[in-house]
User: What shape does this take?
Amino acid sequence: MADGLGDKPMEADNGTNTLKPPQMGLKLVHLDLKGAPPKVSYLVEIFPLLSHLGADGILLEYEDMFPYEGKLQVLRSPHAYSPSEIREIMNLARVLHFEVIPLVQTIGHMEFVLKHKMFSHLREMKEFPNSLIPCKEESMELVKSMIDQIMAVHKDLKWLHVGSDEVYHLGESEESQKLLAQTQNTVDSLFLSHVRAVANYIVTSYPNVKPIVWDDMLRNISEEKLKESMLSQFVELMIWEYNANFKVDGMMLQIQKYQRSGFSHMWFASAFKGSTGAAQSLTPISYHLANHLQWLKVAEALSRDFIQLHGIALTGWQRYDHFSVLCELLPVGLPSLAVCLQTLKNGVFSEKEEDFVKKCLGFKTLRVNFISTEDAGSFPGSDIFNRVTQIITYLQESVDKLLEENIYIKGWFSNYHRKRKFVHPSIIQHFEGEVRRVHAHWKAGVGELSAALEKIYYPDTVEEWLEEHVHPTLTKLQLFVKDMDETLASEHLK
Assistant: This one.
């Protein structure tokens, strides 16, 4: 076994036992476009691969990559997809029989909207552009306009995800405080009322579309309050949990509470990347595999309780929020996604699934417990996977070891000597060759990575990733080479 994770939800079929894996419904791959949005040409490359691995659809979180128009045009990223590019995505999805569910935030995680001056007066907290004031009429008009523009480009949708997670500082604005003081409303009531109004607008304006919301803001709301809100008549819940070893019993209790509150259709949300650290660069496959094995156990228990599961979204967060750094790039997370999709499809991750993933990705070996730099694979973006793995694993370590542990550099070419361009003439030969070799190696490697990134990503993504993960260390080495060259050219060595 490749994972070494212990218990599995069921044994692999040996030809005589025909146990079926738990039914997970639609398996949606989440594309988080608020960081490192790939060019459409890359999506064209990977969509068929995702289908082959077991995906049934895409949860498409546009954020600022949607080509908003009119008053909302300010929300666009400089590299926002064009309407024709979105049509290209939708046409490809249609060919692959993918379900496409757009995700538009409607109350929380509104940073990409509320950071702009023209919308800043709609913030719940003046200094924090996360949450929309729900009781302002202008807030609702903004949300309706965003929804209408999304819907105009996406035809024949069955679902629209309206976000609604992590609504920080809800109820803290002057308007919200005034409403809370004058009525029997609570902060929970503000949230429920807004989500219900948004959902009601969708089902009224687009009768064939069902809204989906994240569940986290409902977890601590009482069963009675949820029933009273009648929210279950308007929305379906997407219950998310990304931890590797979350408690199945606890999750079932939460789901049963939702069921008693009137919610008859559920969605799950796992994670294949982007949930193990805001600045995570390499994807810990075994962690995400464990998360999906837990969700299989929940699905198995769910089937016994006759609760209908529409599907599961495999989230791949690219930023924790609009202002945070990039998490793992999509090509770096693809091996994890492949493992997780096969696990959900077959109910187990055994040698059979491992062999299938290796064949699909062009790997000779597949290590889920640690990242290997020996086998780059041959999948779309594998060159990025390979170079990123090498740079994150070895760049800083090799440069620090060279500059901080070499006895000749420490003893005869310290910062003091470098500043004064002064060195013992016979000493520099002890490190010059090694310094130039290491510098040339990483300069070439970074050049190859930069070229690979430019094929898939827009210039701002390439710049951000290199500035975060390469430039601090490579610049340190380049400055050392510069000091060495200037010292070699100085008068006392001539």
User: Anything to note?
Assistant: Confidence is low (pLDDT under 50) at residues 1-18. The chain has two domains: 26-367, 385-493. The chain is about 45% helix and 10% strand. The radius of gyration is 26 Å.
